[in-house]
Amino acid sequence: MLAKRLICCLDVDRGRVVKCIKFLDPRDAGDPVEMAARYNVEGADELTFLDIAASHEGRDIMLDVASRTAEEVFIPFTVGGGIRTIEDFRAVLKTGADKVAVNTAAIQRPELIREAAERFGSQCVVLSMDVKRRAEASVDGSRWECYIKGGRTPTGLDAIEWVQRGEELGAGEVLLNSIDADGTLAGYDLELCRTIADAVSIPVIASGGAGTPEHSHQALTEGHCEAALIASIAHYSAHPIADIKHYLAERGVPVRPAAVAASDSESPSP
Length: 270
Prior knowledge:
Elements: E1 5-13, E2 16-21, E3 24-30, H1 32-42, E4 46-51, H2 54-57, H3 63-72, E5 77-80, H4 86-94, E6 99-102, H5 104-108, H6 111-120, E7 125-133, E8 144-148, E9 153-158, H7 159-169, E10 173-178, H8 190-199, E11 204-207, H9 213-220, E12 227-230, H10 232-235, H11 241-250, H12 258-264
Parallel strand pairs: 1-4, 1-12, 4-5, 5-6, 6-7, 7-10, 10-11, 11-12
Antiparallel strand pairs: 1-2, 2-3, 7-8, 8-9
Helix pairs in contact: 1-3, 9-11
């Protein structure tokens, strides 16, 4: 059985890691490269950098952060935010990043997913989805809506319909961000996780709401996800990565032990 992954997320705004609640009111959490290096040693399986305002503000992607991170860490990492073109994909991957996450530009021009998958491989293409629960189901029964521009702009697009199309176009993985649960520390939206994970055959990463090790366990079992994204509980050392992995392993979830992950990360694979 493949090991489940614990991924540390670093939301970046103007060169600093920030943490929001429901995508609002960002507060400073530290330097992105320093934090990435710490998580690399502590045993995170992967890292994800998301420039939370790049698409909304029309800013360029954070290539400098990605390049400096590649020099400091030896675990896979993903970069997203402000990705608009195939050239942006290429530029990010050239820094040493392993994957590129795309949201706004993919919804605005879905063929970008196919083009990127054909050029760089599906394993490099992460479909990032910022999803919010509708107050009432739409006429067609849709319960979750996709948002763009850093969670600021509703699209009217049904989340299930979009994730299935994203898989068809060639996305290799889904980063499922719950706007409602983001930063609340109250747990992932498990119903949303299950619904999306069961709708596709590619891995789904649960994101938004992790506050305890139990929440990660729920996402990986009840939520049917292949990976759990954590932020606040790691940034502020409420629950060290090793403790979360120990909690998961004790309950039968296959994970790479943090000590092994940390030692493996000290030198790149041949």
